[in-house]
């Protein structure tokens, strides 16, 4: 299935049972809620998906199950976060074999590769597969930035098609457009900068709080795309205190609590992560409760 790198791509959480097994029933409930809300793709195995704690066979299961659930409605994108080029190539092969339509790729993990090494890493994987690739550019969390000069080198790989822009520098959207035009699709990767990025010309949003609030997230995107910026802004202003739960070290626990509150998830995380406790838990629950209490009435955004 072709990946059109445009619109809302939830970076979905991985659901676990209380016995630390994959909870495929609740996972399916959440994916169906995303599809009903009108998302444009599903991303598996990102930070929110607790990728670093997943076993290889679990990743295989998640891709296969998601492909089955979406049934061709939207593309399924698998994140690649590997320590070696060999491992990344193998992960790309497995993702394709399991039915994924595209890849999201972080730079090499653990080892802080320099610019040349990072470019060669992306090129090697891109040249090993025909799956389309979105570069995950998040130097804040992963300490390696894919610069404009590096993107210029990667432009020769036709299947490197998009960037998840998570540098926290809103002007990077304009810098990418000024230098490359439409060569790369740009998707905002920071919930608290999403509407700003879309207004500045980003093509989409790799979203986090969408896991709990899919309709509100898609509504913001669709409204701004239709030029109804004021309506999008009002929903976004309501959403912002919740979106800030995504830019936090405990984003997985935060968002899973929100999924519980909206009935499409569980709180279970995989150790070493632990559920929130004490004042932190009370604070997050308070934000979620206030958000639910003041939840906006949405227009018919799917028919704009």
UniProtKB/TrEMBL annotation:
SMART domains listed in its UniProt record: DHDPS
Record's keyword annotation contains Heme: no
Presence of keyword Signal: no
Signal peptide positions (record): none
One family name in Pfam for this protein: DHDPS
Key words, A-Z: Lyase
Name of the protein in its database record: 4-hydroxy-tetrahydrodipicolinate synthase
Organism (species): Roseivirga pacifica
């Amino acid at each position: 299935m072709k990946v059109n790198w445009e619109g809302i791509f939830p970076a979905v959480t991985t659901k676990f049972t209380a016995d630390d097994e994959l909870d495929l029933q609740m996972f399916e409930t959440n994916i169906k809620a995303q599809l009903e809300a009108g998302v444009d793709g599903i991303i598996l195995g990102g930070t929110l998906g607790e990728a670093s704690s997943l076993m290889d066979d679990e990743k295989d299961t998640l891709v296969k199950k998601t492909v089955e659930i979406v049934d061709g409605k939207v593309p399924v994108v698998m994140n690649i976060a590997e320590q070696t080029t060999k491992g990344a190539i193998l992960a790309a092969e497995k993702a394709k074999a399991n039915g994924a339509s595209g890849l999201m790729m972080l730079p090499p993990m653990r080892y802080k590769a320099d610019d040349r090494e990072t470019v060669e890493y992306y090129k090697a994987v891109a040249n090993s597969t025909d799956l389309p690739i979105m570069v995950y550019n998040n130097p804040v969390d992963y300490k390696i930035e894919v610069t404009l000069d590096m993107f210029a080198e990667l432009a020769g790989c036709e299947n490197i098609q998009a960037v998840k822009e998570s540098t926290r520098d809103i002007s990077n959207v304009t810098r990418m457009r000024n230098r490359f035009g439409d060569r790369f699709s740009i998707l905002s990767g920071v919930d608290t900068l999403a509407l700003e990025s879309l207004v500045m010309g980003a093509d989409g949003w790799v979203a986090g709080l969408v896991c709990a609030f899919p309709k509100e997230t898609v509504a913001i995107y669709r409204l701004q795309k239709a030029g109804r910026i004021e309506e999008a802004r009002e929903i976004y202003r309501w959403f912002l205190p919740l979106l800030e739960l995504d830019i936090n070290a405990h984003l997985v626990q935060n968002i899973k609590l929100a999924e519980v509150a909206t009935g499409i998830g569980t709180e279970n995380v995989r150790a070493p992560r632990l559920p929130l406790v004490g004042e932190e838990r009370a604070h997050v629950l308070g934000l979620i409760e206030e958000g639910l209490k003041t939840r906006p009435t949405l227009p018919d955004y799917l028919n704009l």
